[in-house]
Amino acid sequence: MTTVLIIDDAIHIRRLVTRMLEQSNFATLEAADGLEGLKILREHQPDLVICDLSMPVMSGREFLVAVRNDPQLQHTPVILITAMGEEEETALISMKADAYLTKPFSSTHLLEMIYRQLKK
């Protein structure tokens, strides 16, 4: 079973994404910030990470830098979730995110993005 780590400081977003994924037969793990997410990523090695960009303690940007600088984690696909507009697209790509979604997003769009990343 494919496992996805969901990192977001908003519990309602984490639960919403968890429900979407579990209904599509994914196993899920949750973290409330990037630091907790990094610990879970190292311990459980999920297949893919969905991470909010703006969080306290460790932001999605800081999380992504830590993942890309770790030889054991750097190939883990990371999809960033942001409430920012299209003008942030270049910044997100330069951060080496595999993909990004802008809130609000549909379950269909999220699942398409996940499947696309897992096929790489």
Question: What does this molecule look like?
Answer:
This protein has 120 residues and is α/β, with parallel strands linked by helices. The protein has a single domain (3-104), classed as 3-Layer(aba) Sandwich (Rossmann fold). 43% of the residues lie in helices and 20% in strands. The chain is built from 5 helices and 5 strands. The protein has a 5-stranded parallel β-sheet, sandwiched between helices. The longest helix is centred in the N-terminal third of the chain and has 13 residues, at 11-23.
Task: Return the structural class.
Answer: alpha/beta
The neighbouring-strand order within the major sheet is 2-1-3-4-5
H/E series: EHEHEHEHEH
Compute the number of helices: 5
> What integer is the average pLDDT?
89
Biggest sheet layout: 5 strands, parallel
Whole-Å distance between the termini? 17 Å
How would the global form be characterised? globular
Number of DSSP strand runs: 5
Gyration radius, to the nearest Å? 13 Å
Keyword list:
120 residues; alpha/beta; Rossmann fold; 5-stranded parallel sheet; 5 helices; 5 strands
Write the layout of secondary structure elements.
Elements: E1 3-7, H1 11-23, E2 27-31, H2 34-44, E3 48-52, H3 60-68, E4 78-82, H4 89-94, E5 99-102, H5 107-119
Parallel strand pairs: 1-2, 1-3, 3-4, 4-5
Provide a short characterization of the protein structure.
With 120 residues, the chain is of the alpha/beta class. The chain contains five helices and five strands.
